[in-house]
Amino acid sequence: MEAPFRRIVADIRRRIEDGSLRPGDRVPSARAITREWGVAIATATKAHAALREAGLTVARPGVGTVVAGPARDTELSRERIVAAAVAIADRDGMAEVSMRRIAAALDVATMSLYRHVPSRDDLIVGMIDMALGDLRGGRATGDWRADLQRSARALWEVFQRHAWLGPSMSLTRPQPAPNALRLGEWMMAALNPTRLAVTDRLLVQVLIFSFVRGVASGLEPEKLAVRDTGLTDDEWMERQGPAFQRLAARHPVPHYEQVMRLDSDFEFDLTVLFEFGLARLLDGLAVLIEPPEGPRRRTGGRS
Known about the structure:
mainly alpha; Arc Repressor Mutant, subunit A; Tetracycline Repressor, domain 2; two-stranded antiparallel sheet; flat
């Protein structure tokens, strides 16, 4: 026996195909369906979902569910879909990105997106590539440290603009995004003046990327925490002060107590951590690249 919601979908589909319902026309609401077909509201809701999934209808805020227009689908492109996904992630976080949410933003049927973006993995690769398109690395100057520093800071700036980006990029299973490869090439090219083997250059590039990505992994939770609590990090820390003082009284932590007694000249945030860590990382690489004496120990193969 055919499920009730399928009969409703078939009937509304016939109305669309014979022109009784034209693009932009409202289809019967869930309550209207319950009255016309004598079904429960849950069945009516299921019919609406099936119509949307089939690409026959779209939901328009303030209007209701309407017949999808074929002209709208022809206006779709991979670039528009990816740009809408990036905008959602920038505003609300990566967890809020879904095909249904993107379709609502573009006012199209959900299923129509899959003709341009076959899967969520494909969507994420496109988002990564679009976000990294903001990178401005420039040509190598011959000063390996300055060039690596500039590339790392450029990446940090992109991560700050797109707080979801860092956790979305895999370190061990890198996504095939052209702009990610371009970043790697910049960093390895910065090491051309050195005598590092090509495998060492790759390891340096991955090390710097992993450091920047690691610090950037705190950007999205921090942004969402500010949104959800309405408190900046400084305001949150100020409110937590008494709790930390009580904890310190029960569990002596002299070094933290010294930090807490410092004046306001000391500020801590992710950018402070990034700059401090990058400088120390480059200091360590300098020992490998420009050893003060004796032969340099190779960690990779020959170039």
